[in-house]
Amino acid sequence: MPTALITGITGQDGQYLAEALHAKGYRVVGVVTGQRNPHAETLASGLPFVELVGGDLADLPSLIAALEYSQPDEVYNLGAISYVALSFKQAELTANVNGLGVLRLLEAIRLVGGPDNPIRFYQASSSEMFGKVRETPQNELTPLHPRSPYGSAKVFGHHTTVNYRESYGLYACSGILFNHESPRRGLEFVTRKVTNAAARIALGLQDEVALGNLDAKRDWGFAGDYVQAMHLMLQQDEPDDYVIATGEARSVREFVQLAFCAAGIDNWERHVRIDPRFFRPAEVDLLVGDATKARRVLGWAPEMPFENLVAAMVAHDLEVERRKLR
Fold this sequence. Notes:
It contains eleven helices and 13 strands. By secondary structure, the chain is α/β, with parallel strands linked by helices. Strand 1 (3-7), helix 1 and strand 2 form a beta-alpha-beta unit. The N and C termini lie far apart (43 Å).
């Protein structure tokens, strides 16, 4: 039975990945931060097969201890300050966790794994690293120009992963994942904020939702599809980096239209208020990925269409809000 250690186990990617690996026969160990972590109890009830171990990307000794306890074959680093807007307000924390945290985890793997290191490492890189894009679509060789503290920290983590691969011979991969969503997405993210608001407005629980730039375009896929690519990367003979994306750019406006339509609301404009507070200091206008390499080498392709993803998120939020009314 292979063992996988996952940071960020409480997030949408961590949960989907844990389920996928468990189905493949893995022992799954999840890293949780802090005492009495409120997510630990939820995780224990929802994913009872996951073993939990303490650890913090800001603390090297705790990562070494987590590795020594779990003795993993594979490590998936999904832990991060993942909300881009928050990174502008907490830039130092974001750099510490998203950037230096990758360095600490790689160093822990180097120390625990020894000279013939058997541990395979996956780093969750991000399309936000491309920022002010130099070409469209973006692939593994597109120059990086991040436009947020989040993107900048991810660039550091990405290059550090490459450095440890080249310097120490570690099996270290980065998945440059474009936006991926699910019903498990946090409510602070614009996609889930929109689908939840559409559900609540349809049920008469609120009248409007405040949003920022409706013209920003993103390449949106389903998180459950994308975690399959993470696993495939660590099954190859040689480590490498891969863009994971659908290749289709959709605007926030289009996402909103589909969400409100799925909730049975025709005139979405009357329920949306544009609020300057939700505009970024430096906007990323267009992100769309070229996943040709992942298709060719990994045999990976996204399965859930964009329209189905939005509909599934709205259906989930309608059910959640209806349960609250019972």
